[in-house]
Amino acid sequence: MAEIAAHREEKTWEFTIEYRMHHKNGAYIWVLSRGIAVRNDDGIAIRIAGSQTDITEGKVADTLTALPNRLYFLDKLECSFDAACQSGRRFAVLFLDLDRFKLINDSLGHAAGDELLIEVAGRLRSSVRAG
Q1: What does the pLDDT read at residue 106?
Q2: CA atoms within 13 A on the CB side of 23
């Protein structure tokens, strides 16, 4: 990774990287890696000290509605497509559109639009099974 290479070459004080990892269950998780190079007396990087944090929650859920976002949808769609191809099964994608949502935002304000989205999200959440 370019960020680690730049840090090893002392071009940066530390490195910070966000990336996806493929989990053994087929899903993807998002990870934040941070670290600094530990150098010997000659200034050569001999190891990296740092941490990795699972940041999936913040990456896959909309902050307002707590519903899965587009990134999560695309990950799940890819996994579902791969599984369908391997098993010979089919799956479907449902598209839901809120008619005239822009009109609500424009005429009643973004706070009203946010309230509507939260209400719709709650109704969707209560209407579908877990998983």
Answers
A1: 92
A2: 12
State pLDDT tens for residues 72-88: 888 788 888 888 899 99
Q: Domain segments of the chain: what residues?
A: 2-93
Rounded Cα gap, residues 100 and 105, in angstroms: 9
- DSSP codes, 83-105: HHHHH-----------TTHHHHH
What long-range pairs does 103-107 form, CB within 8 A, spacing at least 24? Answer: none
Name the one residue in this structure whose structure tokens are 């670290």. Answer: 35
The model's pLDDT over 32-87, given as tens digits with 9 standing for 90+, comes to: 999 999 999 998 889 989 999 988 877 777 878 888 788 788 878 888 888 889 99
Range 2-93 has CATH code 2.10.70.100 = yes
Under the phi-then-psi rule, with left for phi > 0, alpha for psi from -120 to 50, and beta for the rest, what region is 109?
left
